[in-house]
Amino acid sequence: MNTIKVERLNDIAILPLDTNGFEKLEPSKKKLAFHLAQAGLWGKMICLDQMSKHNIPLLDSLTDIYSKTDKEDPIHQKLYESLFMLFTHGGIYHTMSGEKITLPLSKEDLNLLSVSYPEQYKIIDYVLNSEDVPAFRTVQNEGVDVVKNSGVNFYEGLTTKEVEEFRKNEYKLEQYGEEIPPFGFNEKLIKNDKGEIKREVISLHGLYGKYVEKIIESLNEALKYTENEKQHNSIAALIEFYKTGDAKLFDKYSIAWTLDQSSEIYFINGLIESYDDPLGIGCTFESLIAFKNPIQTEKVNKIIENIQWFEDNLPIDKSFKKEKANGLSASSITVVSMAGDTSPVLPLGVNLPNSDWIRKKHGSKSVSLANVDSSRSGYESVLREALYLPQYQSIINQYGDLTSGLHTDLHEIAGHGSGKVNPGVNTDVLSTYYSTIEECRADLVALYYIADEKLKEFGVFDSSVNVKEAALAKYIVYLTNGAVAQLRRVKEGNDLTQAHFRNRQLISNWIFNHANPEKVRMIKDHGRYVVEINDLEHVKEMFGILLAEIQRIKSEGDFEAARDIVLKYGTKVNPIIHKEIIERIAKLNLATVTGFLTPELVEVDNDVIIVQPESFMEQQLRFYKEYKL
Questions:
Q1: Among 69, 236, 339, 481, which one has the highest count of C-beta atoms within 10 angstroms of its own C-beta?
Q2: DSSP string, 532-564
């Protein structure tokens, strides 16, 4: 990884993805991947607009001026940096923390632009400087109207109370029993001048219709190259959903997608995750295309083969456990294309579908993104000496990458795939806190099991692995990240608003507040806040205790308890620790945001090859032009 090409801009690093192995796929599978990738790229603008109604007008203005300015003009470089930041973060809000980013355009710069580009200037100045543009993409603070104060573009002219009352009256969820469709996940609610609330549904003839039409066209081409009947049924069902936007048809697609567990080409396409909606309902567009790695997948499947053991031995109330854990599949994949909410910053793992009733009845599919994990961990290895005590350096160097990947697998498979809710409970009642609670639950399952010797017996760990040392390495890394390291990505003085940030801090702070301080604690060493663990089993036991409570909250739909635990441990940031870690990491000149170039699938004669773009900006400017209607 030392020779890897890295593009840097301030705190951003853009890396290439290793797509080795794609060239060995059968031509028909390459063609399938190509058309699925095109379907994803046509959804880029949907996600941009969902993240903020100001994103596209701002990008239109900046790209226009950038194309007309001379490279020797001092403003050209500032425009370059501004666009680089916006493309990285997917708009005006930080891709990880959700804070509004600060672009390198001064008042003097804007004054110059106002003379030559008055119309563009008005838009740029408003978006950058108006107090009417929310400071956060997603607000979930207590006592605040989260809908009114969030910058995400799922609602217009509405308050939280109005949205909740409208949905309660409009959807009438009680008629569906446990099999509730995800109503509201693919729509925008708008209150007009008459006070009427209108639904704009994403569909062929609805919201973003011209982009949906292009997506459908590409999916229809993909149908010609499907590997088997189940994969064909999955894509066909997705097309039918896009035609009308009917949430019930999305459930039908999700079931078909889940049942397709043998195909080599893996894809995600659609409105998937609800992290950015303050009410946890509206979903952003994302696309991911990959192929499976059979060797790495073999180890992942060891978890699947023993999934009932994981379910039966969870340290939670028996009534919250699945009697039969089935329908699961897991794979290690190599990503070859991504768009929307998964680009350019990619996750390490994915477990879908999100619907609890589909998981219970039909199962779920988990993937770990092997080429993302290897690229990211290699680049960020310099962090280790800065974050951990000397006595942990050796085991973290030895087991850090291994347990990072395994934690992701356990999180997605044994975590998200485990447990059940009580009859009659709709987890939507957890509202703004659901995402944090669910991510917390999955992380705790992974943390609890990663220290178990059974993993070696199952073949998840190789026989040479010292399980206790590997688990200790993971516990040190996780608790350090949750309580300290992740704060380097948050502006000083701000609370945590993003679900994953809250989840990790909640777990870490709860441990430090409830565990025996002689056995696990945060200490100050040579001016650095670091984590010390003296009793691995005690920490595992504490993870189990917290897991039992988090599972209870989800299974019973206990909104009050969810709110209390998230606000107490996952939201407020210790300002002293925050200041110290920002200063510590600043000395390393290390990026806090790691993104990836999108591999480009190109048709050549009767084949498809992957072309790596020359630069991030060149690619993003071209994509913005080619996939904008």
A1: 339
A2: EES-HHHHHHHHHHHHHHHHHHHHHT-HHHHHH
Residue 341, token pair as written in the block: 């909410």
Q: Is 29 helix (H, G, I), strand (E, B) or coil?
A: helix
Residue 178 near residue 144, CB atoms below 8 Å: no
> What is the b/e burial string over 211-220, where b = at least 16 CB atoms within 10 angstroms of the residue's CB?
bbebbbebbe
- Cα–Cα distance for residue pair 336/542, rounded to 1 Å: 40
Range list of H helices, 306-369: 307-312, 356-362
Q: Identity (one letter) of the amino acid at 542?
A: M
- pLDDT: which is higher, 425 or 248: 248
Q: Which of 612, 400, 595 is nearest to 10 (CA)?
A: 595
Residue whose C-alpha is closest to residue 334's, from 289, 295, 301? 289
Q: How far apart are CA 99 and CA 490, in angstroms?
A: 8
What six digits make up the tokens of 615?
């630069």
pLDDT 10s digits, 41-67: 999 999 999 999 999 999 999 999 999
pLDDT, average across residues 373-384 = 68
Q: Which of 369, 344, 349 is nearest to 594 (CA)?
A: 344
Give Rg (Cα) of the chain.
24
Confirm if 183 and 176 have CB atoms less than 8 A apart: no
pLDDT at 139 over 60: yes
Rounded mean pLDDT of 414-424? 90
78 Cβ contact partners less than 8 Å away, ≥ 6 residues apart: 104, 105, 109
**Assigned token pair, 242:** 């896009």
pLDDT tens, position by position, 225-274: 999 999 999 999 999 999 999 999 999 999 999 999 999 999 999 999 99
Quick one: average pLDDT of 512-532?
Answer: 96
Buried b (16+ CB within 10 A) or exposed e, 539-566: bbebbbbbbbbbbbbbbbbbeebbbebb
Environment class of 186 (CB within 10 Å of its CB; exposed 0-12, middle 13-18, buried 19+): buried
> Exposed, middle or buried, 537 (CB in 10 Å: 0-12/13-18/19+)?
exposed
| Helical packing angle, 434-449 and 536-556, nearest 10° | 150
Q: Angle at the Cα of 386 (from 383 to 387), degrees rounded to 5?
A: 85
Q: What is the largest CA-CA distance in the chain?
A: 71
40: its two tokens: 């994803």
Map residue 90 onto helix, strand or coil. coil
pLDDT in the model for residue 2 = 42
> Nearest-CA neighbor of 443 among 470, 485, 413?
413
DSSP assignment of 430-474: GGGGHHHHHHHHHHHHHHHHTT-THHHHHTSS-TT--HHHHHHHH
Q: How far apart are CA 422 and CA 430, in angstroms?
A: 14
Distance (Å, whole) CA 257 – CA 364: 9
**Mean pLDDT along residues 70-85:** 95
pTM of the model: 0.86
Q: What is the DSSP letter of 369?
A: E
CA distances in angstroms from 498 to 140, 282, 414, listed in the order given: 9, 15, 23
Residue 436 has pLDDT above 80, yes or no: yes
Per the prediction, the chain carries an average pLDDT of 93
